[in-house]
Amino acid sequence: MTTENQWADRKKKVSIPLFTGYVFVKIDDRYHTNVRNTFGVVNFIYFMGKPAIIKESEIEKLREIVETYNNLEIIHLNEISTGDKVRIRSGLFYNQEGEVIKIKGKTVLMTIDHLDCALVTRIEINQLTKVTPLNTVLCTS
C-alpha cells in the first residue's frame, strides 16, 4: 500500500504494509517452530487454540482491494483511547501534541495545549501518533 507522508520540509509517497506488524505465511505444520524462532517473530495469531488460517481466496480479495482502492487505510482504533497523549503527524497542526477527549468513528476530538490555552479540534485518527511518556517502554505481543 502506498501513502503520502509529510515531513517538516517535504512530502513523499512511501510503501507501507496494509497490516503493520503482521506477516502472512503459508507453511506446513512441521515448520511452525522454525517460523516462531525467526528473529522478530513473536508468535502466530491463534483461533480456537490453533494458528489462525486465512483462506487463499481471502488473501486474493485483500490484494484486489489494495490494487483497486488507492486511498485504502487500516485504522487501529485500539491503539488510541480517550485520555491518551497524541502527536499530530501532518497538516496545519503538524507535530503539535494534545489529549484525546472523544473518539467518534474515524475522527478524534482532542485538545491542543499551547500558550496556556486549550484549542479543541477534530482530526482524523490516522493523522495521530500516540505519545509515549519518557522512561516508558511499549511492549506488544
Question: Keywords, please?
Answer:
5-stranded antiparallel beta sheet; single chain; 141 residues; disordered C terminus; two-stranded antiparallel sheet; 13% helix; mainly beta
Write the layout of secondary structure elements.
Elements: E1 2-6, E2 11-15, H1 32-36, E3 46-47, E4 50-51, H2 56-68, E5 85-88, E6 97-104, E7 107-114, E8 117-124, E9 128-130
How many β-strand runs? 9
Strand order of the largest sheet: 8-7-6-5-9
Residue share in β-strands: 25-35%
**Sheet having the most strands:** 5 strands, antiparallel
Q: What general outline do the C-alpha atoms trace?
A: elongated
Question: Gap between N and C termini, in Å?
Answer: 24 Å
Radius of gyration: 19 Å
Total number of helical segments? 2
Q: In terms of structural class, how would the helical and strand content be classed?
A: mainly beta
Rounded mean pLDDT score: 77
**What is the H/E order?**
EEHEEHEEEEE
Uncertain runs with pLDDT below 50, 5 residues or more?
134-141
The proportion of residues forming helix, as a percent range, comes to: 10-25%
